[in-house]
Structures are given as structure tokens and as C-alpha cells.
User: Fold these one by one.
Assistant:
Number 1:
Amino acid sequence: MLRKLRTYFLAGLVVTAPLAITLWLTWWFVSLFDQWIKPFLPAVYNPDTYLSFSVPGVGLVVTLFLITVIGALAANLVGKTLLGYWERFLGRMPVVRSLYRGIKQIFQTAVSQSGSNFKQVGMIEYPRRGVHVVVFIARELDSGEIGREPGTTLYSAFMPTTPNPTSGFLFFLEKQEVTILDITVEEGAKLVISAGLVTPGHDEAIKVDEKDIEELLKTKAK
């Protein structure tokens, strides 16, 4: 009986934990914008004024609307002129200048339709021969683009850390140093995040004991 309960618990945990964490993160994200924006909304535009309960998501909707309006204004001649004045002003500030340019470049690369995303997954020997790590190929470039002598084809590759793939190391590698894997970027990300527990073609993150599975199947058959 205890073995069956343990199996049922693990099966329920696999189903409920990702769902609960996703809902909690979504609620936290929406509530964060409500806390920032709602205090500045005029009472006439705040639905909480007319209702006996708080309406979630108002701050997020207002933020998206304001960002869209700012984007529309920045696209015309007047907006571009004002933006140019603002960037020249920031360009005269020593520390803020570098910070602003770096953040702007990141966002331009992330949201630009012409920006390149990771297209392939590779494997390199690091930190020594015989030890292999997964890398994500960003693009192919010439060595002259990074200040080296031109003529050598390189891969711009990102090696993520486990289990947090948002941090890692940037490598510029010659093509022959990279072994391209026959898996998708999504499968490579699962492989990294799960620390190798989830391999391509296998989505189960928790492996239940075979005896537990057999007993569970027998119970269902009865």
C-alpha cells in the first residue's frame, strides 16, 4: 500500500507542480505591474473604483498600451528628433552612457525581426579533451569581424550553465572544433536544464521505479 501511495504521489507531483509554479509566476508577474501602475491611475479610469473587488491585470494592460504609444511616437519625425536629443544627453554621462548602450543593444537584438536566434546545438571539448559540453550556435562569422586576421570561419557559440541556462560563457570557435548535434534547440535546452536527466526524445523528468510501474499497471488492470 505504501509503495502504491508513493507512486500515486510522484505521478500527482509531476502533474501539479509545474502547473502550480506556472500559475504562481503568472500571477506574480501580473500583480507586479498592478502595484506599479494602479497607484498612478486616475480614479475614473481605475475599475477598482466601481467594483467591490480588485481587477487583476489592469497595470499590465496599461503598460502594454503605453509602450505601444511610445513606439508609435518614436517612429515619426518628432519622436525620432526627441529620442536623438535624449540619447545625446545620455551619451555625455560617463557611466550611464555605457549602461544605456549595452542594454539598448541587447533589447534591439532580442526583439528585432532580423536578429538571429540560436539555430543549432553543438558539442565541444571543454575544459579539457575528453570532456564534452553542449553549446548553442548563434551564427557563423569571419574572424575579421572580431578583430582577428580575416579569412577564418568561426562559430559564435554560447555555453549555458546548469540548471540556469541564462548564464554561461561566449565562445568563438573554428568550425572544425564544433560537432553539430542532430537535435533541436528546444531539446538541447531541456538537456541542459535537467542536468542530463531529460535526453532528446524523452520528456519524463522523474523516473519511477520499474516495480512501482508494474504494480500500478496491475492495479489499473484489476
Number 2:
Amino acid sequence: MLLSLIAYLSIFLFIGISVYKAYRFATMPMHGRMDLYPIPKEEGFEHGGSFYEESEWWKKPHKVSHVREITEMLKEIVFIKKLFENQRPLWWISYALHLGIYFLMCWTILLVIGVFSIPNGVAVENLNVWGSLIYYLTVLTGICGLALATLGSGALFLRRVFDNTLKKHTTPQEYFNLLLIFAALVTGIMTWGTDLSFGTAREVTGSLVTFSDFTATTLQTLNIILVGIMLIYIPISKMSHYVGKYFTFHKVLWDNDPNLKGSAISHEVKKASTFKPTTSWSAPHLKPPVAPGK
């Protein structure tokens, strides 16, 4: 029962904090737009140039394609496109970690589906088509996810330790982030990797889903607690960049809506100009005035 509460609480906090962060991003004052071209959403200018190059552009409709914009975002979110283009050696290990996490997300969902689709004690060859599909997909995603994510997190940690350039820009928190993920994955392999059919994992998942009591081993308990801690920690750490990617692309890099009189952008600019910083900074215009004689 306690492990079920830990599992549900960690999932609830992960989703809740992530949604709260998205809300904070969405309600922040207007940013300093970069408008990096080519901007995917601009129809007719996909290969460079801009709508603003048109004569009397302010008299013409600004045609945009949000489908193309979302497609470009997905390339970055799913495949880490920019890292692939600019840092190919680092991309391999970083993408191994991310792809492994995607597999493990699917694996977890498949375990839950399997609880209700694969009867206990039934041999694989006796399963129906749906049950067989869930069974083999669970095996595939579980093995690939654990292997890739563990390899990626371990390799990224070692790369930051031994690469002199990365070492200069790596904070203690970033080492901790990778070690936490690596620890959760290694205990996961030790816990569930002894049964590559993941029948035990499915049984434990069933107990967690239904709040049924079960006798957990020390490793199972440790892994569930570590995963719970990781899920709560991720959205409050730098690893929450998955929340900010949409806003980075949509509202910073590719937001080139015209600032016309009476437009929504004009209203946002006026609103942003009244914003007063709530934190201190070393910039001269934000330093408090010095009293005469001091």
C-alpha cells in the first residue's frame, strides 16, 4: 500500500509541477524575440527570407502554418535535431538517454495495459493476438529502454567528467542529475532485468495499480522509491526543459508576428514595458542609487 502511495504521489507531483511550470512560462512578460530565419511557420519563405521583405507587407495577410511549426518542434523534441546538426559526437550518447527514456515511458504504459490484457499463468503461445502484441512490445521496449537509458546516462556522466571543455561548464547539480537517473536505472536492471519477459514487473505493476498488498523485495522497494524521487525532482530541476521547449520555439525563436498599432503584440509590448524586475542584478540600471557622500 505504501509503495502504491509513493508511486501515485510521484506521478501526481510530476504532472502537477510540470503543468504549473508551463503555466508560469505562458504567463511570463513578453520576451526579447530573436526571430531566427527561416521561420518554419511562414508560408512561402521556408528556405529563407521573410514576410517583412514584401513591399507594403503591413497591408498583406500574414500567412502561417502551425502544422509546419509543430513538425519542426517534434524533430527537435523527438530526435534532438539541433544537437545532431551541431554536436554529432555528443548527440549519440545524449540521444541514447532520451530514446531510452521514451522507450521506458512506453514500457510503463504497456505494463499497465498488460495487467488487464495478459492473464496470470497463461503461456505466451496461448495468448490472443492483442495479448501477444502487448507482451512482445513490453519485452522490446523494456530491454531497449533500460539498456539505452543506462548507457546514455552513464556515458554522459563520464563525458562531463573527462571532457575538459564540458567540465568547465558542468555544475554539481548536473552531475547529481545524471547520477540520480543512472542509479534509478541500474536498480531497475537489477530488479526487473532478471526476468526479461517482465512478468514480475507486470505483477508488481498490477499490485500498485489496484493498491493491493504484495511482498516487495529490497531491490524492488529501492527502485520504486528512487523512481519516485526522480519523478518529483525532474520538474523542479534543470531537467524540466521538456516544459520550456515549446515556448522557446513558439514564443522566442519563431515569434515574428508584426507589431502593428492596436495589435495583440502592441498590447504585449506596452504591458512588458511596465514590468518591474523582482530580483537583483549587476546591471547598472538595476542597481539602487547610492546616497550622496557614500
Number 3:
Amino acid sequence: MRPFLLFLAPFALAAQTAVLENAGVRAVFDLAGGSLIELELRDMRLNPLTWDSNGPAPRPRGHFLCFDRWGQPSASELKNGMPFHGEATRVSWKLEHSTAGEARMSAHLPLAGLSMERTAKLAGQAALRVTETVTNRNKLGRMYNLVQHATIAPPFLDETTLVDANARKGFMQSSPLPNPEEPPVWWPMAMREDKAVNLRHLKDDPNPNVVSYVVDEELGWVTAASPAKGLLIGYVWRVREYPWLNIWRNVEKGKPSARGLEFGTTGLHQPFETLVAKQKIFGRRLYDYLDAGGTATRSYAAFLAKVPAGFQGVAKVSYDGSRLTLAERDSRRAIVVETGPLFPD
């Protein structure tokens, strides 16, 4: 399965990237597909978001957007040109406006008839706040999905990387329809045939390949920590906007090659016809809907933190309106990331 001071890059790249940077962190967006392709602490220069689909540009890279769908189109949609995961990474994004520490960019999806406006702003010394507004440009209402496909890869990702989240009940995408959620699994565990698998870890076996979970708290969070390299990347979002967390795992030549930390509006990796037939899993909807001319706005934040050698992973992430506190598993230690406000009122 699968597949800060703001400045533009040097003139030759000006049409391709937007770079946000302050004393603590650097973020780079690829306008050929809209992906967040770099997020790194300036004094470490280790970028977790190095994954690349390696196709022609525009293409999915790093943290990319699955929009207007997550997964494959129907056979007829594919024949008409709709790509896997939608058009968002297959079109060029326009840099609309930029100031110190902030960029606004937009994209239009010609087949879906949807558009997006994104504002990215650095928050504190180690966080990035992103707000995205979807508009339905069609003369009729339509269903859609939006999944943030944040993808970590080597050299940050290796066999020692620890993934943690406040996910709860879940199911394997490989489980048979019409009821793949029966019986459920519980984070961080999943099943491969009759064997339990802990998804916090990835070594040489990527199965189960994709597992989807719901979150029951007001804020969802997911982190990936590399104690050997001293770095953690994480995301936090409002569960009312993104009720699902989808975990993708991939291995190449016996080594971890990618992990998708994917939060979004759906947890079923199927064409819309199947989503309509299923409607909900665990009481959560599997798609969203916009009337003609309608808009919907969602936000999330990405953050980085240094972690000590021997770090055991994250037990809990708390947010008090100005900082994130990461409590270490099986420890009294905590890491604080000063962010300021992360979500619009």
C-alpha cells in the first residue's frame, strides 16, 4: 500500500520553495505539490521529513496533503485522471503573501473543484502552526476528505525510533470489509494474522502496513522520537477537526524506510462509494461534506524537541495555551516546548 524570518530561497528556487526561519527552527515548503519538506532545529540540522515519492514534480514529499481523498480513486475516476491521494500534491501551489515568520499559499484542484488556502506561521522557537481553509468551488455540494500525511524517514528514522500517540481503538486496513473494525485493536497494538504487533516500533517487518485509530480526547497528538539522535518530532491537533490517526509503516532492504503519522478526517482507505456504504466506524464519520460555496477551516501544529539519550518515549502531551509539556514514559522527566497560542479562537 502506497504509495523565524521568512525569505524565499535563492532566485533559481524562488518559484519552488518558501522558507520560514528564526533563531530556533527552519521550515521549508515545496510549492511544487505543497509539501512541508523540512522541519529542523537550526543547531541540529536533522530533518525528519526527508521522505520522497521520487516521481516527477509536483509530487508527494515529507509531510504532504491527501486531498480531496485518502487512498485510491474509483476505476472511472482513475480513468478520468484522478491520482492516488487526490490532486493536492500534483498541482503547483502559489505563494500569496509572506512576512517575517509567516507564509500564505494556495492551491486549486481542477478535477475536485476544491481549493485550499494555507497559512503557516512559526510559533516560539521550535513549533510551526498551520491553518488551512477548504472552499468548494463547485455549483453543487460534494463529499471530500483531508488527511495530513506527515512522513518521517531516514536518517532520523531507524530501528530505535519510538512512535507514541493518544490514540485508542483501531483496526487494520487489511481486515476484510464490510466490518474491518471487528474485532478492534487498541493502541499501540495491532494484529498480524494471530500475532500481536506493537506499533511503537518498526524493524524489518512493516506488517500490518496501515492501522487506523480514533482519539477520544479534545486534542490529538502523535510523536516520533529518536533517542540515539537526540530529537523528537510531534504533531497536535483538534480531534473535532481530525478524528482519525492512521499509522503507515514501510521497510526497504530490511530497514525502516518510512512511517506515516497521518491524522485526518477519515480512517478508511477506500474510494468514496465504499465510504458512503460504511458511513461510520467507532461512531466516527468517514468523510466530510461541503455545500456549494462552503468553507471549512482546520489547524494543527508541528513541533520539535531535543531528547536525552535513553529517552523512553512520550506518555502524554499537555497544552496550556502557551506551551506543550511532554511527559516521558516510565519517568518523572518532562520536556517543555514554548509555543504561544497554537490554535485560532
Number 4:
Amino acid sequence: MGYTAIVDYGAGNLKSVANAMKYLGLRTCIAGEKDELERADAIILPGVGAFPDAAEKLRGTGLDRELLLQAEKKPILGICLGMQLLFDLGHEVRPCVGLGLIPGQVGRIETGFKLPHIGWNSLSFQNDSPVFRGLGDGEMVYFVHSFCAYAAEERYVTARTDYGASVVAAVGRGNVFGCQFHPEKSGETGLKILRNFGELNR
């Protein structure tokens, strides 16, 4: 039985993701080396903090190039900041290049509501994704963010949520998936998402 690599680049909420996967009976490895990503069946890119700091840490370790390579052959799930890093460019603090796995940019949420957006919000699905199999509109998930993705094309957007504006909540392109919310903190719905992702490599 293989494992899911949870990328450790100094900017991730690693333990809660690992604990949720363990609860589901899915093997994981906290991975900070390129060969650990190569051996994994799937990869989760978590993230907490600022886009440029996280992007620089990935580049500094060479994990950015390894993620691009692995995205061609195995499932990758970005969570929160990890999802934002999947995009071409981020505008938090200063413009900074991302991984470019999903076309689009990341910017501040354009809303009159208070930021950061913290709390439970419902999902509205617009494109199918195997990661959300068995889930429908109205599912509640937990968000903590001030910035969000602006996808270049709607076909990459799996789900949205409303926070005084329509906010991209989930994305997908090929083997690459992203959740702006935290599935590991989203109760049974979040566990269903992680279980679906874990089953992609079986």
C-alpha cells in the first residue's frame, strides 16, 4: 500500500491534515524531500501564511519543480494557501509567481464584508470533480482567508461560495485539485473530500 505525501515546506498545517487522513485509514508521509514526493501515490500541498513567503520556500528547496513533474502523473491537492500556490501569480504583499498548474491569479477578496473571511460557508458546485463525488450544493465547509483565486477560465472552477461576492472555493485541472477551505476542519463533508482524494490513487 502506498502513501500520500503531505508537503512540508515550513508553511503548512501539517498535523491536522495528517490526523484527518489517519482517521480515514489512509497512509501519509510528512515529506520535505523530492524523492519522497516521487515515491508517493498522491500529494497534498497544505499552506498557512503569505503567498510570497510560501512560494519562495518551495523554490528554495526545489520542491516547486518536483511538484510540476509529479502533477503530470499523480493526484495533487492544494489546501487554502496550497490551492493559491497552484495558480500563475499571487498579489499578496507583492506580485509573486506561483506554480502555474492552474491558469489564473490570486488577489484580495473583493467584498464589503470583513476580512479575513473566517467561518463556515456553503458550497455551490458548477463543474464535476471526483474529489467531490457524493456531495451536492449547500455542503458547509470551513474557511480562513483574505485572498482568493481568480481563475482564467470557469472550466477550472469546481465550486464557489458567497461572501458578499462570489468566491472560488474549489478548482481542478487534470490531476490537480484545490480547496480554498480546510477539508481537515470541515467535519464529515471535509472527511468525504479527503476520502475521495485518497481513493484516486487506488
